[in-house]
Every structure is written in structure tokens, then in C-alpha cells.
Amino acid sequence: MKEKIEKLKALNHKAELGGGEDRIAKQHAAGKLTARERIELLLEKGSFVEIDKFVTHTCHEFGLEKQRPLGDGVVTGYGMIGQRTVFVFAQDFTVFGGALSETYARKICKIMDMATELGAPVIGLNDSGGARIQEGVRSLAGYAEIFLRNSLASGVIPQISAIMGRVRVERFTRRRDGLIFMVKQTSYMFITGPEVVKSVTQEEVTMENLGGSEVHSTRSGVAHCTADNDMDCILKIRELMSFLPNNNMEEPPFVPTTDSPNRIDPQLDLLVPTNPNQPYDMKELILSVADDQNFFEIQEEYAKNIIIGYIRLNGKTIGVVANQPAALAGTLDINASVRPPVSSVSAMRLIYRC
User: Fold this and answer.
1) Residue 300: pLDDT above 70?
2) Long-range own/partner contacts, residues 254-262 (CB < 8 A, 24 or more apart)
């Protein structure tokens, strides 16, 4: 029995090293945390229960049969954020660059199925080079299985995606619900990289200009929230979770406040100018009426003529959609019109129930 316990400890240690100490050092040098470090920050200490920790891939071609890292490049399981159970997967860039295999996809699908059945949120911490090309269509089929579960869980449970490295798939583009976080300077989201663009169009473009956080938060609108670094991103995810319910059959968490619902703010009398041609900042009104002046804004840098996000009134979550007179006089253009159904309203379906 003692030998078996020691063997199990050795396997645990090997699995937790991922791609090895050298690759972990490179991950840190790039300003990024490892998959396990991200999960440790996201969940309450000691609450994470890992699933399929010792799984390995089933590929026998192209030399991969000689490399069978435990866990196969993704860490999956469940744990607690506050008093709530959430399911999480974190792609491990130190193992094959986080590339997705058939087995890898099955691990993600398993926790997504469990989350949907239990009625719990699912959070994906993404850092991957894309499909594991050595597995060909089996890897691509794995993406199809994940996309299917994204659709089945749509409007049923919150789905939150954090782009914390490279992502080369189209699954995140204009999703009808769920929120996408990106990290400045270290996260990139595109169909194909700068090298392929150059080979086809002869155009030289940087990864930042092609699919960095600024592009997706200001121009495409795909990214809903941006963060300065991995830690900031995870803290924002934890904050967002406090506004969302576990599923479409439950209420969002009630958060007690000392902010009196009967308080009066005299400054609001002066907010709207007497001159109708003079702009004012609608965010001042939102912050004034929100509990403790706490406003979780979504897509802050995109289509600034409309404001969307979450506040609380007397402890209860409220979705906000507001014109912003300080930008384009608050008029509705194409981007502003698209924003509420893409982000705020679709996410609010979870709050007001299907």
C-alpha cells in the first residue's frame, strides 16, 4: 500500500508540472501565469477538485507516442467562488502549446456536460495554439463537440471565457451569450496568425494589430472586458460572478448593502443641463443610483454612445442599458444597436429567466 501511495504522489507531481519547469519559466517570463496558478487564484483555496488528472492522448503518429504528458494539456474540474460551485477548464500552454487533441476536448466536454446538468456556471481560461495538427480531423471534431455544448448551454448557464494567451478558433466570435475577457499585451484572438497573413497577402501585421485586446475591445466588439494582467482578469471574473445567477432557473446572489434605498443625491438635480445641446455623462447617474456606486460595465471601449453593464439596487442585480449623451449625443448607430443583444440583454436572460 505504501508503494502505491508513493506512486500516486509521483504521478500527481508529474501531472502538476505540466510541460516541465523550463516551460513554466518561459510562461512566467512572458508575463503569464500557468493553468494551475490561474485556477488557484480563481477559486477558493483548497476547493478545486480536479477531473481526469492522469488522462493522456491516444495519438500514435508523428512521434507523439513518445510524448504522453499527464492531463494532456488542459486542467479541468470544479470548485467554489464564494459559496457557489463553478466548473472550470484551463488550457496549459506549457504542454504542446495548449493545442487541443481529441482526449483534451473530451475533458472539456465532460465538465461542460456536468455544469449544464447541475446548473452551474462554466469558466474557460484559454491559452492555446489551436488544434493539435498531428491528430488531424479528430482534433477538429473535438472543437465541434465543444461548440455543440456551447450552444446547448446557451441561455441555461453562464459561460465565461478568458483569453489569456493565443486563441486561434472562431468559437468566440460574436457569441450570443456569455462574456469574453482579454488580457492586454499577452492575449490574442484570430483565425490565423501573422505568418499566414504574410504568406497569402504579403502584408506584415503584428499579433496585437491582428487580434490583440485593443482591436477586439474597441473595433470588433468581440471582447467584453479587458484586464491589465492575468491576476486582474481573474479578479474581474470573480466580480462578474457576483452579479450572475447559477442558471436560468435561479435568482442572482443577493448582496447586502448599507447603502440606503431612500438616500437622496442633490447632484442629480444638476446633472442634466438646461441647454438640450449640451452633453452630460450618463455614468454619473448610473453610479449615483447603484448600491455603493458599484457599476460593472461591459464593452466599455466599444460603441461608447451606449452604456451596458450591471449594478445592484438594494442588493439585487439589475441590468443597465443607457444612452450616453457624452458620445455622439447618445444616438444609436450600428455598433451601439448590436451591443445590447450581444452582451447585456442576452446575459440578462439569465437574470430575468427564460
Assistant:
1) yes
2) 254/315, 254/316, 255/291, 255/312, 255/315, 256/315, 257/291, 257/292, 257/312, 257/314, 257/315, 258/292, 259/291, 259/292, 261/313, 261/314
Q: How do residues 145-182 score in pLDDT, each as one tens digit?
A: 999 999 999 889 999 999 998 886 555 544 556 789 99
SS3 155: coil
Least confident piece of the model among 190-199, 201-210, 218-227, 256-265: 190-199
Instruction: Tell how far CA 226 is from the center of its chain.
Output: 10
- pTM exceeds 0.85: yes
Q: Phi and psi (nearest 5°) for 26? A: -65, -40
Element (H, E) at 163: strand 159-163
3-state secondary structure (DSSP) of residue 162: strand
* C-alpha torsion angle, residues 59, 64, 65, 66 (rounded to 10): -160
The answer to whether 123 and 42 have CB atoms below 8 angstroms apart is: yes
User: Nearest-CA neighbor of 318 among 298, 290, 292, 299?
Assistant: 290
